[in-house]
Amino acid sequence: MVDTAGAGVGAQGVEVSTEKGNPNVSPHSIFDLVPEEDSGSDTLGRYRYQAEVAARDCLAMLTQDAIDFVVCEWHEDFVVAWSDGSVELVSVKHREEDQGTWSLVNLCKSGGLTHLFDRWCACESAANVRLRLSTNAALNPGKSNAGTLARMCGPEPELTDGLATMAETIARQMLKVRWDQPYPNVPETPKVRKLSDIQMPPGFVAKVVRFLAVLEISCTPPQREHITDVNIQRLLVPAVEELQLAHVDLEKTYRAIVDRIERANRDESDRSQLAVYIADPSRVRHSTRMQQRIGRRRITREIMRQEIVHTTVQLPTFPRGQALVIAPGGAKLHRKLRRGQVPSDEAAFAERLRSAWYTTWSERRSGLTGDETDLANLSTDVLELAFECRRHARAQAADGEFGIRMNDLLAERLKVDALPSPPPFQLSNLHLRGLAYQLCDQCLFFFSEPFDADEEAS
Asked: Do residues 63 and 206 share a domain?
C-alpha cells in the first residue's frame, strides 16, 4: 500500500526518500512509484487536447486551495495531487463525434478503463488514490451499458442494484483485453470462445468492485473544437475576476498555460534511462533523479500565476471625454524641483503628469480594501526606482547639484516594463512618473539634498 506518512518503497522494491525539508521530495507517495511506460504518450496528436483537459484542473488551482499541484504524464495522462494527501489519476480519452457513444466493451478495450485499473493496482490499491476517466463523448445509455456503469462508480454511487453483476462483466471484459494487451496487473487466463467461459481468478471480481468505488467517469470535457473557448469563458474568466486581476490578455494567458502543460508532458529526456534508475544500487541517487523528473512535470499554483499575460496597450494620459482634473497640492513638489534646478517648463510638465496620475487613480481604483495595499506596493516599486535614479545622478554630478540629471533619469528608467511586479491596473509610463511626482509632493523623496519644504514656504 502507498503510505503517505514517511519513507516508502517504490516499484521493484526501490526505496525512495521522503525526508522532510527536501524541496524535491513530494508528500504524495504515489510519486515515489515509478510509472509504467506508456507508448501512447509519444503520439503528438493527443497532446493538445490532453493538455487542455489538464488545464481545467490547473485553472482551478488559481482559486482553489484544495488542489496542491498537477503532475503531467505520470502513471496516467496527469495526476491531481490534493492538499489532503490524496491523489487522482486521470485518463483522458477523446472520441470523435462520428464515433458515437462509449459502449461498455469499448470503455474496457480502448477507453482507458483497463489501463486505469492496471495503474491503480500498480499503486497497490492505496486508500489515498482515486481515479477519473475523463472523456468528451457520451456513454451508451442502454441497460447494463456504459451509462449504467458510470452511475455505479464512486464512494457514494447513484445506483447499487446489480453492482456485483456489473463488476463481473467488467472483470471478464478486462480479462479478455489482457489476452492481447500486456497489462501486468490483470491476471492472464486461457483464451476461450465465450466470455462466460473465462475462468475467473479468485478475488478478482471483488477487486473490481473496490476499483469502481474509487472511479469517476466524467463526460464534462468539451469537444476538441470547443474546449479552448469553454475553458477560457467558464474557467479562466471567473478566476481572473475572483483574483481581481486587471488587463489580462485572456487568449495569450490561456495559450501560455496550455503550452506550459505541453512542455511538462513532453519532458521525456530520461525515459530511456528509467530502467537504469530502477536497477541503480544507489537508492539516494535513484530517488533524487526521480524527484527531479517529477519536478519538471509539476504544475503548481505559482507556475500558473507566472503564466498570466497582461495587455500592453497604453492608455491615454488623461481619460477621454472627461474634464481635466487638477490634482490637489503640488506646492512642495514645485519647491523641490526648484531646489533641484529643474527648468520651469519641465516642472510645469511634472505637475501635469501628477494630475494625470491623480485622475487615473481616482477612476481605476476599485473602492475595496485592497486598494491601499495595491497603492502601497506600486508606490514602493516607484520609490525604489526613484532612489536608484538619485544614486546615479549624484555620482554623475560633480558639483552636487543633481536634480536635473535625476529628473532625466526618471524619464528614461521609470517604465511599466521595469517594475518588479505588474501594476494593479493598466498604466502608461507617464502615469508612473505622475505617481513619482506625487510621492515627491508627499516628501517621500527629493530632487536635492533633503530640506524642510514647509519652512521654506513660510
From this structure: yes
Sign for the pseudo-dihedral over CA of 89, 94, 100, 106: negative
**Within a domain: 3:** no
Nearest to 29 by CA among 78, 79, 66, 73: 79
Most distant pair of Cα atoms in the chain: their distance = 106
Same domain, 194 and 342: no
Using the structure block, give the residue that is written with the C-alpha cell 447513484: 158
Within this chain, do residues 412 and 274 fall inside the same structural domain, yes or no? no
| Number of domains the chain contains | 2
Amino acid 188 reads E
Answer whether 438's CB lies under 8 Å from 360's CB.
no
User: How does pLDDT run across 36-74, given as a tens digit for each residue?
Assistant: 554 444 455 567 899 999 999 999 999 999 999 998 875
Please identify which residue in the block is written with the cell numbers 530640506: 451
Listed in order, strand segments (DSSP E) in 293-440 are 298-300
Residues 302 and 157 in one domain: yes
Q: Which three cell numbers stand for residue 125?
A: 490499491
Question: For the chain, what is the mean pLDDT?
Answer: 84
**pTM for the full predicted model:** 0.61
| Residue at a domain's end among 306, 339, 356 | 306
**pLDDT band per the 50, 70, 90 thresholds, residue 184:** very high
Q: What is the rounded CA–CA span in Å between residue 195 and residue 388?
A: 79
* Coil/strand/helix, residue 102: strand
- How confident is the model over 278-322, as pLDDT tens digits? 334 454 455 676 777 777 888 999 999 989 987 765 678 887 777
Q: Which domain holds residue 41?
A: 8-306
Classify residue 316: in a domain, yes or no: no
